[in-house]
Amino acid sequence: MSEPNSKRDFIDPKVVGRLMGLPMHARHPMLGAVSGRHRSPIRGSSLEFAEYRKYVPGDDIRRLDWRAWGRSDRYYIKEFEADTNLRLCLIVDTSGSMNFGADGSETNTKLDYARKLAGTLAYLAAHQGDAVSLSCAGTEFKSEIPAKRGALHLGVVLDKIAEMQAVGETGLATALHDAAEQISQRALVVIISDMFTDPESLREGFQHLRFRKHDVTLFHLLDQNEIDFDFDRPTRFMDLEGGSPILADPTLIANQYRKAVQNYLGQVDTLVRDTGIDYHRTKLSDAYDNTLARFLLGRTPKTKK
Predict the structure, then answer these.
(1) What is the pTM of this model?
(2) In angstroms, rounded to a whole number, what is the distance separating the alpha carbons of residues 219 and 279?
(3) Beta strands in 94-228 (DSSP E)
(4) What residue segments make up the domains of the chain, in order of their start?
(5) Theoretical Cys-Cys bridge with 109: which of 4, 101, 266, 283, CB 3.0 to 4.6 Å?
(6) Residues 103-112: pLDDT tens digits?
């Protein structure tokens, strides 16, 4: 849908082609400005029956259910689910820790992985006629692009994704509250972050988004080394968000570190369970197209028997 651009190498046409057959659905009814594929809380006249309600003067008599009248001698109106379009609001963590690469390398970083997730989701949403917005959640690299539809707007979003830089401390907690206040209609809010912060500092932000009736998804990016801490000799550990480096012997602290990581992951599990968000713990070694396929398939509405 957009013009070819060498900066957009995070968009793989083969991956997009494979995922195109998996529509992006919201878990909750959406509100939009045009007709689309997503359920709306507003009753309309689409083909899917929703419920009966009593007739009131002024209702369209063409929607009267005469069979119900024959059984009860009362007038009832058939209501149906109205379809609407979705707003995909992407929030990407651009703090310095997103510069950490798979297996500790300086290439194939968390930010590179985030670009692939965000860019592909933006393309898929735009292709099915949905609006897309982008927020970069950092203290030094910040940007906000409001939700719009169309190929030209998609190009703007993809160019900004290509320009993202991972620097400074995280601004994720603030970005969540800003999104909750600024997104005027119900939306699918997709957050991509390594959660390099106290999980409890994000609780109010998640709750704020859920209070606003948004459908919230979190892709939590981790590298296996961050979990295993499989180092066997003295190592200099750098704080990518600006703190002082630490020289440590991993054999002396490995057990404590692993316990701390498991405690942290347990806090994250509790947080996402309490706030009701759609959580995806994602390792950099995971093929991103498989990660997106699981996300999309998990949202496919179950057919009614």
Answers:
(1) 0.79
(2) 6
(3) 131-137, 143-148, 188-193, 215-222
(4) 6-25+85-297, 38-84
(5) 101
(6) 656 668 999 9
